[in-house]
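Worked example 3 (structure in, sequence out).
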């Protein structure tokens, strides 16, 4: 017996093992730990993880909600984790985004308990729409002034791509989602900024130095190519929206512009194509990256996320050649033991769960069966790592054990129920 998703199938023994490990990990997260943070409200306090999709309670609620929907568990855990996620006032300020604050909890309610808390869901949705509208106004003013964006203006984790991902799942017919897409189209237009990058830099070029980086090479700004914080996130959202029939003027042209940019920075190697994580001004002027080869093949910054976004773009454009090139890049990466051995943890953002979930979705849409054969191997690797997730690991969805459990749950049940929208892979 096999279980199929799209054009892929997986042995029932593999599915059963995935189900068992998912259940084991979910059981360890059944009850939120009893933690009293007292009066500690400092920005670095662990209390704020409660309202995090990435590292805390909001993400764990998604796991338990989908397991309850599949009738694999009762509803007590999801309600307990939602209560934990909302025990403090939810952030809707500058730090809020899809992975944190009101948008994170709104996404969790939409996916984990659709229709269960209509009053709370409506209030959260209103907060997210207000936040999104304010961010759009600020972005329009920034572009009118010919200034460079912060990556957090447009990225997936905190920016408008993430807020658009929530809207695509919660309110796909809304005018606000269309405004986000219009913004992303405009983001692909060059800016006549009076800085050292000039008009030769793309519209998403940022003047900011990457977080926790003191490399002087970034003094004149950079362009981030990755899924989590770079232009690949907007590409994936534009493509997913187009596949659901939601488009705006210039939509396909914007998709093509980003794809051509990624084409220009695609590098050849014996192990297959790869892309640099970021482009500095010197690299822009040289027309080549100074990075010597591919780094860790994570969803967030590596070839898997980049390739999946380009596959989605190709499907939206009906571009078979581009689709096959993206699938070839992903398959080559997954066949390279040197790259895979750089993965050291099981999580969605940085590790085996993210690579497996991305490849699983890509295989379901693939033009050839090659990827589905590699997914079997990835599931085995994830199972080997996931079963031994440290008991003191973060509990969240993106960077914690809940994401490992939910990836295995999805493989075991052959469905995602929309949760992977928070990664923009499906």
């Amino acid at each position: 017996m096999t279980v199929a998703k799209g054009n892929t199938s997986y042995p029932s023994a593999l599915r059963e093992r995935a189900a068992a490990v998912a259940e084991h990990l979910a059981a360890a997260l059944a009850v939120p730990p009893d933690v009293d943070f007292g009066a500690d409200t400092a920005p670095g306090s662990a209390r704020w993880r409660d309202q995090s999709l990435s590292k805390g309670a909001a993400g764990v609620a998604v796991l338990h909600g989908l397991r309850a929907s599949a009738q694999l568990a009762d509803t007590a855990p999801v309600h307990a984790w939602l209560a934990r996620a909302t025990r403090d006032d939810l952030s809707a300020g500058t730090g809020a985004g899809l992975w944190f604050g009101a948008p994170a909890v709104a996404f969790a309610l939409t996916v984990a308990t659709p229709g269960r808390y209509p009053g709370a869901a409506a209030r959260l949705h209103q907060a997210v729409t207000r936040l999104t509208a304010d961010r759009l106004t600020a972005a329009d003013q920034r572009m009118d002034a010919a200034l460079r964006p912060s990556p957090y203006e447009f990225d997936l984790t905190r920016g408008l791509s993430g807020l658009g991902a929530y809207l695509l799942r919660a309110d796909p017919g809304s005018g606000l989602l269309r405004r986000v897409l219009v913004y992303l189209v405009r983001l692909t237009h060059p800016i006549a900024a009076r800085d050292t990058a000039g008009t030769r830099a793309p519209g998403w070029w940022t003047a900011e130095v990457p977080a926790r980086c003191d490399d002087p090479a970034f003094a004149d700004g950079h362009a981030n190519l990755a899924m989590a914080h770079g232009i690949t996130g907007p590409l994936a959202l534009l493509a997913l929206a187009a596949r659901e029939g939601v488009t705006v003027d210039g939509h396909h042209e914007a998709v093509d512009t980003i794809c051509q940019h990624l084409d220009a920075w695609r590098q050849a190697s014996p192990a297959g194509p790869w892309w640099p994580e970021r482009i500095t001004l010197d690299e822009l002027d040289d027309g080549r990256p100074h990075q010597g080869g591919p780094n860790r093949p994570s969803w967030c910054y590596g070839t898997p996320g980049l390739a999946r976004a380009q596959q989605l773009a190709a499907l939206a454009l009906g571009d078979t050649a581009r689709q096959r090139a993206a699938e070839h890049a992903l398959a080559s990466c997954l066949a390279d033991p040197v790259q895979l051995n750089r993965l050291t943890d099981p999580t969605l953002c940085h590790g085996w769960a993210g690579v497996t979930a991305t490849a699983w979705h890509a295989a379901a849409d693939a033009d050839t069966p090659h990827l589905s054969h590699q997914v079997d191997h990835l599931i085995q690797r994830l199972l080997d790592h996931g079963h031994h997730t440290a008991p003191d690991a973060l509990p969240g969805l993106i960077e914690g054990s809940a994401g490992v459990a939910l990836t295995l749950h999805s493989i075991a049940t052959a469905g995602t129920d929309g949760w992977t929208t928070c990664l923009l892979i499906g």
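Notes: The two ends are 26 Å apart (CA to CA). The first helix runs from residue 12 to 28.
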